[in-house]
Design goal:
By secondary structure, the protein is an alpha/beta fold. Helices cover 38% and strands 18% of the residues. The protein is globular, with a radius of gyration of 29 Å.
Length: 727
């Protein structure tokens, strides 16, 4: 059979198997199957440690049946069968409900695939699928390394393995695969050919085979990604834009004169970078990342003022109405009369600052849109409402996107499209990004970093409150909060859930009954704002002025609550993560995060940044039921142990699946990056970026490398490429 990379799998594997692979794994062509690499390799004598698995993971293990026991269930009809499997390094429990077995006997070897569940804090497989190794499998299973593939409920690892073998037999090897990498590049870096790498990754005979194959296949991923991003950078550099040079004696000078503090050296340096790029006639595309509280908003305001001085408008896109309203208040406060041009008490040399959100009433919305359309509003702050049809700018010169990770590329482009010519773009994030993530995810943007915090900040001390190990510590936490309030300060209490939305409860299984068939998590529900606020007001914080803030409140109620908190009319704000970004109340010095283990590392760092924004020292208490010795306890200890957001970003990357970091989980699509590790392959990514830049800089570009050009075109046009901007 003539096979190519674009051959439909149905021609090779048959319609039934091909359909299952397409529907459950998204594998449709020979290319898809060959690029579906093993997750790991099993050897007899090695055991997958359940401690290393996460609840919800679907995994496959190679093991031998040790014991099989069956009994009738007491509280429901049917039989519960428990199978203990092991392989020298440990044992694990498999649970089956009402299932009869023929060959599943003690001593049998097999592959067991299931979803990791948890019952009474013990991880297990409930109703796993399995494939027993028989004499028919000798050719595959006698190999030193048995590939274990990412699989699904409908397509197991052993089906994928047999499919690859069938493809190998049908094509007479992988000789039909053309290598897209230039030969001189392969030679410089000592890389295998693509056919050899694919053979070694799917049917290796040694660890060395796997290592060499993965090195080559990582290069494919890194180089194609960097070529796509490099092409975008080059295209952006050629876009026609409008120069917005700095003007002396204008709004920018007035902003600098009105600032009640000295700019940090980092703010000055980044400000000069932005000023120089805004003065060019090609649009700026820059990512500004920095530590929580490093003053990114001031840097953005100075850039917006420069654009207004040059006759243009600036739009600031914020992810929430709370944050948009705060940005508008903060900017108007810093500008004073300069933000009220055209009003009785306004400065005619200034401009208008307009807030545009979805909750605005009809009349204010019409007035805001009119000011945006006629150009009298030089600075426009808003949420997704800025993207709506009917919002027209007179001359949009700069788009500032705050908290970029909350938006997709579609929103950024929708706002850019409202300019007469492509506007300058400044993307901001307060979530520090490791260098390799910045190169891989935001590689089409130039990057600026703010590390230095403004002087006069009190700093934040953080501690974990492990209530399972040290229950009395929680009482002391509330005492500590009361002490701060008594000293005239304020506090946040953050919970992972709002409350009242749950229609039922998670009942514990009957003691005499079997584990749940779903393998469900038996942890209690996350703590909720409404429940915690009530308990605190009647208990340890009785007598203090408490208020709640969450996403289900009306915009007016949220705004009123935040104004009351900022005016010191509220002592303790019990809130969800709606306070995670941008909220700035300098008098707040304490944050207590309930169920801290339910939050990610970067999210905890963001939350912690809401306190100690003034001269007083802050305190962040991470309350958890996780034991100190567990991986979760150690992760929280890492957050408490450092205030360096860039170091925590690496911890975050180590504890999360990289697909989530790259956005595959957000977009629901398969990630093109399968083997590349953003932490371990930093040098490879940097080298691939340099090679990509050199290839694109040649006179003919990729014209002499049609295979590579095809891979780049496929990624650049494939909808899956969306994950690059969605991280």
């Amino acid at each position: 059979m003539a096979v190519t990379l674009d051959t439909d799998l149905a021609r090779v594997l048959g319609a039934k198997t091909a359909k299952a692979m397409a529907e459950s794994l998204g594998l449709r062509t020979v290319r898809d199957l060959l690029r579906h690499y093993p997750r790991r390799y099993a050897r007899r004598g090695e055991m997958t440690r359940l401690d290393d698995l996460q609840v919800g993971d679907r995994v496959t293990v190679l093991a031998q049946v040790r014991r099989v026991t069956s009994r009738r269930m007491r509280n429901r009809p049917g039989t519960l069968t428990e199978v203990t499997v092991g392989d020298g390094a440990g044992e694990m429990q498999l649970v089956f409900f009402n299932r009869r077995f023929g060959k599943l006997e003690e001593g049998a070897w097999g592959l067991f695939a299931g979803t990791v569940g948890e019952y009474r804090r013990t991880k297990q497989f409930a109703h796993p699928d399995f494939h027993l190794i028989t004499g028919d499998d000798d050719e595959d299973w006698a190999r030193a390394l048995i590939p274990i593939y990412p699989a699904s409920k409908d397509v197991s690892s052993w089906v994928i393995q047999k499919s690859v073998r069938l493809l190998l037999d049908a094509s007479g090897g992988f000789g039909f695969v053309e290598d897209p990498l230039p030969e001189d590049l392969r030679r410089r870096h000592g890389l295998l050919s693509l056919p050899a790498a694919l053979l070694d990754v799917h049917r290796p005979t040694s660890d060395e085979d796997v290592e060499r194959a993965e090195e080559r296949l990582k290069w494919d991923e890194a180089l194609v990604l960097q070529l796509v991003l490099g092409a975008r950078r080059r295209a952006a550099a050629l876009e026609p834009g409008t120069a917005r040079p700095r003007r002396d004696g204008g709004l920018l000078d007035a902003v600098d004169a009105a600032l009640p503090f000295e700019l940090t050296e980092g703010q000055r340096q980044v400000g000069e970078e932005l000023a120089a790029e805004l003065a060019r006639d090609h649009p700026m595309h820059r990512l500004l990342q920095g530590e929580v509280g490093s003053g990114k908003t001031v840097v953005a305001l100075r850039a917006m003022a420069q654009v207004v001085d040059a006759g243009g408008q600036a739009a600031l896109l914020a992810p929430t109405e709370v944050l948009a309203a705060q940005h508008a208040r903060s900017i108007a406060g810093m500008l004073g009369p300069l933000a009220r041009a055209g009003e009785l008490d306004g400065d005619p040399a200034g401009t208008k600052v307009v807030l545009l959100t979805g909750s605005l009433k009809a009349a204010p919305r019409r007035a805001a849109r009119a000011a945006v359309a006629d150009g009298s509003a030089g600075i426009v702050v808003g949420t997704h409402a800025l993207l709506q049809e009917g919002v027209e700018f007179a001359d949009l010169g700069l788009v500032v996107v705050d908290e970029q990770h909350r938006f997709g590329v579609e929103q950024r482009d929708a706002l850019r499209a409202k300019g007469n010519r492509p506007p300058h773009v400044l993307v901001m994030t307060a979530t520090p990004i490791p260098r390799t993530v910045a190169m891989t995810v935001y590689g089409d943007l130039e990057t600026s970093v703010l590390r230095q915090l403004p002087s006069g900040r009190g700093g934040v001390a953080s501690s974990v409150v492990p209530v399972s190990d040290k229950p009395t510590w929680l009482d002391r936490a509330w005492e500590r909060l009361r002490e701060e309030v008594a000293a005239g300060r304020q506090a946040y209490v953050v919970c992972p859930r709002i409350g009242d939305e749950d229609t039922g409860s998670e009942d514990e299984p009957d003691e005499a009954d079997a584990p749940q068939e779903s393998g469900g998590d038996d942890r209690r529900p996350p703590l909720a704002v409404l429940d915690v606020a009530e308990a605190l007001s009647e208990g340890p914080l009785a007598g203090l002025r408490l208020a709640v803030l969450h996403g289900r409140m009306t915009p007016e109620a949220k705004e009123a609550t935040m104004r009351a908190f900022a005016a010191r009319e509220v002592d303790v704000l019990v809130a969800t993560t709606v306070v995670e970004v941008g909220v700035d109340v300098p008098n707040a010095t304490v944050m207590v995060v309930m169920d801290a283990d339910r939050f990610g590392v970067s999210q905890l760092h963001q939350l912690r940044g809401r306190v100690a924004r003034g001269k007083h020292r802050g305190l962040c208490l991470l309350v958890t039921e996780a034991r100190e010795t567990t991986a979760t306890g150690q992760r929280l200890a890492a957050v408490a142990g450092t205030s360096d957001g860039f170091e925590l970003a690496r911890v975050d990357l180590e504890t999360r699946r990289e697909g989530d970091v790259l956005g595959a989980a957000q977009s629901g699509r398969r990630s093109t990056v399968k083997l590349l590790s953003l932490l371990e392959d930093e040098e490879l990514i940097a080298t691939a970026r340099a090679e990509a830049t050199a290839l694109l800089a040649t006179e003919r570009g990729l014209a002499d490398h049609p295979g590579l050009a095809a891979e780049v075109a496929a990624l650049a046009t494939d909808e899956r490429a969306g994950y690059l901007e969605k991280a």
